Amino acid sequence: MSATTNEPGGDGWLALPLPDADIRYAQAWLRKDEADAWFERLLHDIPWERHRLKLFGREVDCPRLSCWIGDPGAAYVYSQTRFEPHPWTPALQSLRERVQASCGASFNSVLANLYRNGEDSMGWHSDDEPELGPQPVIASLSLGVERRFRLRRKSLREAKAKPLGLPLAHGSLLYVAGDTQSHYQHDLPKLAGLSGARINLTFRFIHGSAQRRP
Ligand SMILES: O=C(O)CCC(=O)C(=O)O
Ligand SMILES: [Fe+2]
Fold first, then answer.
1. What are the tens digits of pLDDT across the range 149-192?
2. CATH code of 97's domain
3. Within a domain: residue 159?
4. Residues spanned by the domain of 144
5. Is the CB of 127 under 6 A from ligand 1?
6. Cα–Cα–Cα angle for 202, 208, 209, nearest 5°?
7. Which ligand has the minimum distance to the alpha carbon of residue 110?
8. Is residue 11 part of a domain?
């Protein structure tokens, strides 16, 4: 699989001017009415779960609901926990095909996250697990209330102190590829007083152990 044959470009895509990164943003990837319908459908169809996180030897609840969906065998290891995928629903399967066509990449899984209100969040991390390969291509679809996605460089102290904020709009698609995960971390901070919900789908390609090189 090549991630670079038919990358998103042209009308509707904005490339972020970040060194050592390949991040592109399509603000109105879905029409408003489509985005509204997807939000309602996914909110009800996805079997939302509360994942647990191992933090300094303790187990804590993740501050959001999640669900790992994918092809059989596309297991995901996160915080020392292995998640077997839930099967694709026909609706999510059609969405996957549309995202693949738009990104020129294949995805065999998706991590769905539900931020129920401004209290839900995701801490700083890179999506750099070995099973994602050295230059993961990730497509991130946002639905629901706008939340601020932040990026910061891993290495430079000054850059670490000053993250770049990117509000992710309802119906937007963010394409993240190249060396982005090696050089940057991202998060989704809490937003005090916010009552609306947001769904985020990050489409990924998990390389199975059979495909992984030693
Ligand atoms: O909710 C978001 O926009 C970020 C999600 C994310 O970083 C992830 O699922 O790894
Ligand atoms: Fe992430």
1. 999 999 877 666 789 999 999 999 999 999 999 999 999 999 99
2. 2.60.120.590
3. yes
4. 21-204
5. yes
6. 140
7. 1
8. no
Distance 59 CA to ligand 1 centre (A): 20
Q: Is residue 4 part of a domain?
A: no
Q: Over 70: is that where the pLDDT of 52 sits?
A: yes
Mutating to test ligand 1, I would choose from 140, 145, 185 the residue with most ligand atoms within 8 A of its C-beta, which is 140
For 10, the token pair is 């042209």
- Taking 80 as the threshold, does the pLDDT of residue 194 lie above it? yes
Mutate to test the pocket of ligand 1, among 111, 113, 175 (most ligand atoms within 8 A of CB): 113
Residues ≥6 apart with Cβ < 8 Å to 159: 152, 153
CA distance 128 to 119: 26
- Cα dist. 5→2, 9, 214 in Å? 6, 12, 26
pTM of the model: 0.92
Q: Considering the domain boundaries, does residue 117 fall inside one?
A: yes
pLDDT tens, residue by residue, 65-96 = 999 999 999 988 777 778 899 999 999 999 99
Atom of ligand 1 nearest to the CA of 202: 9
Number of domains in the chain: 1
